Amino acid sequence: MEGKAPIMRRSALAAIAAIGSASLLIAGCSKADDNKNENGNTKSAGANAATKGVVNASDKKGGTLTYELSDVPDSFDPGNTYYAYMYNLSRLWARPLMTFKPGAGEEGNTLVPDLAAGKGVPSDGGKTWTYKLRPGLKYEDGSPITSKDVKYAVERSNFARDVLSLGPNYFQQFMADADKYKGPYKDKSAKGLSSIETPDDTTVVFHLKQAFQEFDYLVAAPQTAPVPQAKDKGVDYVKHIVSSGSYKFQSYEDGKQAVLVRNENWDAKTDPLRKQLPDKIVVNLKVNPETIDQDVLAGKAIDLAGAGVQASTQADVVTDPDKKAGTDNTFGGRLVYMAINTKVAPFDKIECRKAVQYAIDKVSVQTAEGGPIRGEIASTVLPPDIPGYAKSDVYATSGNKGDVAKAKEQLKACGKSSISTNISARSDRPQEIDAATAIINSLKKVGINASLKQYPSGKYFTDYAGVPKFTEKQNLGLIMMQWGADWPSGYGFLQQILNGKAISQSGNTNLAQYDNKDVNALLGKAIGTQDTTERNSLYTQIDKKTMDDAVLVPLTYFKVLLARPQNYTNLVSTAAFSGQYDYLNIGVASK
To answer: What pTM value is reported for the model?
Structure first.
């Protein structure tokens, strides 16, 4: 999922949440009520404490929890989102079949049943998966949640791409008979998609066209959170979402604010994961990034995006021992990269793409992003904390500072002495803009003249970078991107950015529009391979093939530097959501 994930969402998932900086101190967990300073405020538990355990553990109820976001999310609709932070937050009102256990590091990657009573039961060699729902599940209005609502949720989110295009389309790609189904807004029959069966109100059976050995991870996406068909309004469902979680919407103002309150029909007996601590949860949108940092440091808000503090704030917190003690620095299973659009000339030619690869001074990009504390220089598609990673550097340059001579040599082989193109970045992400500017400076030295085009992150995929026709019309040959795995495997990382079948006309995340038959075949083979070691070796092959084709420029293996709001409880940095704090059970220390 887009680190935004990313997929979304996205991004996102890592084998373990690594410690980001050796200079930061490690501290254990602390309880909120036993961790006060002389002013009565919660003391810091120490740097990186939330990457090792839960900080300010508490079951105290009450108070208002505030999230702030610098732009707007793609959507609050669980079936129409792909930002990692929305996968994280949406679990408050939308319970998927499976989810991830709140916990630090590797523990945060543990799959646990959510709406389902247990993990999926595979049969037919992994082509059929059966789930039983927990008994007694209810929506916010007290009506029962049934297996038909899960089936409908998958149908609307994956088979109506002209209406809901923002999430991934795994189910559309892998369900049997998917090509025969037109989606619930066009096909009004009661049967719906034939390959999802609901033999009774608590059983849902998925029939796939091929074996999918990681299907439990797939149903952890919010696309399996139930939606009552009678209440669905298509793209307008976001205005009146029916909650299946511990919180429900009290109000929603598009582009401004969402307010959540306790769902009185949520029953803790049906939900061993959620605690329902705050009285109210407020999500404020379009807040200045620097203001967000100030509010977080003051203990008044959480940065919803979970992308870390701004560069100016970073300089302040890392040089102040007291402030540094309240930070968490970790890998997030993410890659910061630049996609080279293979459908925009002259980047349809591999030599021109290789010229870009050799030209970029990655050290200058790393510096623009905030230095080593914000990411290690990358040379592969898979980050080191995703299975299938193998160290490699196809376009190595001295000191990672680029090689003008090799770049010009490739440019000449491409039949060009110069190139004019555009590069896109998100307008509300200063570090991404700075990184793109550093790239522009590198490219200029070899005769590639790139102009920066800025677009808001909330519409980046729906209207701009994720719309192939737009990118081709606007000569967007280079596209800034950050990506995290949809689940902790090579497939969960690679599928939506490399498979030709994942290319969408809106909400597209395969920004290079890369459609290589060998890579597509390897991805299909991998997900059907039961042996984990063999499956991971296939992911390594895919990474190598992609780099040989020069369609992505890995820039840095992302690391996040989070400021930890001291007045909030149950803070734990989870690998499951790109190193963000797990949003499921955060509470308020002082009402």
So the answer is: 0.80
